[in-house]
Design goal:
heterodimer, A: mainly alpha, MetI-like fold, two-stranded antiparallel sheet, 14 helices, 2 strands, globular, B: mainly alpha, 0% strand
């Protein structure tokens, strides 16, 4: 075998490229972001140190608070739909029969396509005159004039986006729930059946408690993903009306890129990263057994 | 223990509720719900593909048709010739995706090997550092990365975007690779070492064949993420000739010669963007689902 010292060195050599990569493209940009957030930084003029002025400005920036509130509202509305919906579909499809297995496979299909592509697809479906959503609603007599789904009313726009994202990501939670349900030993359910427990009793007394960790995990995935929402709003509403549907990431994007207020964009990014961190820490703790 | 199956059987016979054989209304209900669910999920995809083969007149028609009354590939033809041409954008997307696979594999295979098989001091700390992207969302890092890349000429570059995509995929890929290397039996490695192989030969001859499923998973997820990624591409690419497919499709809505949105061409683009994802899913479903599960909960 190798001498321990030599094998340590060789091990480091194998690890070095990945370490350097993370150092250069994740850790260093993070440091740069902190540094930029303390400056008035545009590409046009040399950066000027301004201390915590950017953060001060963010605290008093009504648009920033508006985008944060909107993102939070979107997160609070979509997460329960994804959890309850995904769980019910998982209950329906978890037993391994050919039809249920097939249904599971179908519900998972939108998960594998891009959020950009699915948003463009729904942008068309929700378009007022050419979209099939209004056409179907008017064919069944639910509406008489076309509904302006996207970019006119903030709430209607949000619900349209929520519908498209639920279609797109419901299968993700479903597949995790199915795995958790299938991991429950079948004797447990059978014993409860013998004791005379009905279907919903078994669900609430056995399945739910035994899949609680997965429910928490999927909730966190949904919360973190929704707090970072961008593609669906950029594509479907473009932030309209009057930036009322611009999410936090969208607002950071607007400041950093079209407006080139890079220092301010960095400060907003840092605030956003800190909010996300709260949830990520819980998520990592829940999965610690695998990551440590 | 031996009594339980009998008790179960008795209970089933008494109540007529064997969980396996329970014919009647509820199984029809389950079947109906499954079929309804499949229809709801598949309808948007089907109507999108159908819309892409309508004639130009029909795809702009008000009211819209559900099922094409005409058949035409003109929407694809217009997409083919749109601005720099479809092949430029598909080429960019494929280029970035394959570079992302190459970078991810080149970095995480040796790193996974080192973490699983070498006695490194401070190994856990190093691993946590490598998972840094897990706690700092890349959406937040794009502002500084844009500045850095602008200074070193990596904006509007396939390599630059692939670097961002590799950074996004790093935690997942590294985690999969390390676990896979750890699962290889130690006897295999020891036999090779006794035969006089150095660590590189052991990696190539013994480990690589044993971790092929993990490699497929890592490559698959790298490809799909990169092919679909939108925000990073939108930020880094600001020249028409360097746009990736999702970016040009999003921008195409306001840049058509018709003034309004070219719905047929848009759905042709959506169909092309979706196609490889679904093909890969159908071909590699096993890797897909296991990758999702091990990346998320295991």
């Amino acid at each position: 075998m190798y001498s321990s010292r030599r094998s340590k060195l060789i091990g480091f050599l194998y690890l070095a490229p990945a370490l350097l990569f993370v150092l250069a493209f994740t850790a260093y940009p993070f440091g740069q972001m902190v540094w930029m957030s303390l400056h008035d930084w545009s590409l046009l003029e040399p950066p000027r140190f301004i201390g915590v002025d950017n953060f001060d400005r963010a605290l008093n920036d009504r648009q920033f608070w508006g985008s944060l509130t909107f993102t939070l509202k979107y997160t609070l509305l979509i997460t329960p739909i994804l959890i309850v919906g995904g769980y019910l579909v998982a209950l329906l499809t978890a037993p391994n029969t050919p039809l249920r297995r097939f249904t599971r496979g179908v519900v998972f299909v939108p998960v594998v396509i891009g959020l950009g592509a699915s948003s463009l697809l729904w942008y068309w479906l929700f378009s007022p005159r050419n979209g099939l959503v209004n056409q179907a609603l008017s064919d069944i007599g639910a509406i008489e004039t076309p509904v302006l789904w996207l970019g006119v009313d903030a709430d209607i726009s949000m619900w349209a986006v929520i519908a498209s994202v639920v279609w797109k990501v419901l299968g993700f939670g479903m597949i995790l729930f199915v795995a958790a349900m299938q991991a429950i030993p079948s004797e447990v359910g059978e014993a409860a059946t013998v004791d005379g427990a009905g279907y919903w009793q078994r669900v609430t007394r056995i399945t739910l408690p035994l899949t609680l960790r997965t429910i928490l995990l999927v909730t966190l995935f949904s919360v973190i993903g929704s707090l970072l929402a961008f593609d669906q709003f950029f594509i479907m509403t473009a932030g309209q009306p009057h930036n009322a549907t611009a999410t936090s990431v969208f607002y950071v994007y607007l400041n950093s890129f079209p407006f080139l207020r890079l220092g301010y964009g960095a400060a907003l990014s840092l605030i956003l990263a800190a909010i996300i961190l709260l949830f990520t820490v819980v998520q990592v703790m829940l999965t610690r057994r695998s990551y440590a | 223990m031996t009594e339980r199956p009998d008790a179960l059987e008795a209970a089933r016979m008494a109540t007529g509720t064997s969980p396996r054989l329970r014919p009647g209304r509820s199984s029809y209900l389950v079947g109906a719900m499954c079929i309804l669910l499949c229809v709801i999920v598949l309808t948007p995809l089907v109507v999108s593909v159908l819309a892409s083969v309508k004639s130009p007149g029909e795809s702009a028609a008000v009211p819209p048709t559900y099922v094409p009354q005409t058949f035409s590939l003109e929407s694809y033809q217009r997409l083919w010739e749109f601005q720099s041409g479809l092949m430029t954008y598909v080429g960019n997307s494929l280029g970035v995706a394959f570079l992302t696979i190459a970078f991810t594999v080149a970095l995480t295979v040796p790193a996974g090997y080192a973490l699983a098989r070498f006695p490194l001091p401070g190994k856990e700390l190093l691993f946590v550092f490598l998972l840094l992207a897990l706690i700092i969302p890349y959406q937040a890092l794009l502002t500084p990365i844009f500045l850095i890349f602008a200074q070193i000429g990596l904006t509007n570059s396939l390599v630059g975007l692939a670097i961002i995509h590799t950074a996004i995929q790093m935690p997942f890929s590294l985690y999969i690779m390390r676990n896979s290397f750890e699962a290889v039996p130690r006897e295999l490695e020891e036999a090779a070492v006794v035969d006089g192989g150095n660590t590189w030969q052991v990696l190539v001859r013994i480990f690589l064949p044993a971790v092929v499923p993990a490699l497929v998973t890592v490559a698959l997820f790298a490809f799909v993420m990169s092919w679909n990624e939108f925000l990073g591409a939108l930020v880094m690419m600001n020249r028409d000739s360097s746009y990736t497919l999702p970016v040009i499709l999003a921008l195409s809505r306001t840049q058509t010669s018709l003034g309004g949105t070219d719905w047929g061409m848009l759905q042709a683009g959506v169909s092309i963007a979706i196609l490889p994802c679904i093909a890969i899913y159908l071909l590699l479903q096993r890797y897909y689902v296991s990758g999702f599960l091990s990346g998320a909960v295991k």
